[in-house]
Design a protein that fits this description.
The protein is mainly alpha-helical. The chain folds into two domains: 77 residues, Response regulator (Rossmann fold, 3-Layer(aba) Sandwich), CATH 3.40.50.2300; 67 residues, Orthogonal Bundle (Arc Repressor Mutant, subunit A), CATH 1.10.10.10. It is 62% helix and 6% strand. The chain has nine helices and two strands. Strands 1-2 form a two-stranded parallel ribbon. α6 packs across α9. The protein is elongated and about 65 Å long. 17% of the residues are buried.
Length: 157
């Protein structure tokens, strides 16, 4: 898809429409202005390659050959940033949004190192209620223990 003078929002709407029909479309984007966030959005939509306007033309042929052989084609800088600084996945955002205000409050206290009894005493609720909330939190954010929950909280809240 040629991105020359095409607004990103319109382009991504088109990609979303294509993905609804074919969940694994084989799409490459050309004439893309150098923009890390744009490249991340493209990766999230399973775009096979991105060719920035500031790259040499000879890379276009090399990149297309690579993509036809099943590889991805993104600049090394883009891939390095993606690997070293991954963006939170949409599922984490949805999980965070699915927590109730009370669950968020309890998760913050878990992350702060409070025990179930300390949380119950501070919030004036029963120990059983804290355990029920904790179970629901773990299920929603897909973790198995308090340490994982605290780490999840640190990354996503």
């Amino acid at each position: 898809m040629d991105c020359h003078q095409c607004p990103a929002e319109k382009l991504f709407d088109e990609l979303d429409r294509r993905m609804a029909v074919d969940p694994a479309p084989r799409v490459a984007l050309v004439n893309v202005r150098p923009d890390e966030q744009f490249a991340r959005e493209a990766m999230a939509r399973q775009v096979r390659g991105v060719f920035f306007t500031n790259e040499p033309l000879r890379l276009l042929g090399k990149g297309i050959r690579s993509m036809l052989s099943g590889e991805l084609w993104y600049s090394r800088e883009t891939m390095s940033r993606f690997v070293l600084h991954p963006a939170p996945s949409p599922s984490h955002k949805e999980a965070a949004e699915s927590l109730t205000a009370r669950e968020r409050e309890i998760l913050a206290r878990i992350a702060a190192g409070q025990s179930n009894q300390e949380i119950a005493d501070t919030l004036c609720i029963s120990l059983h209620t804290v355990k029920s909330h904790t179970y629901n939190i773990f299920r929603k954010i897909e973790v198995e223990n308090r340490l994982q929950a605290a780490l999840w909280f640190g990354r996503h809240c």
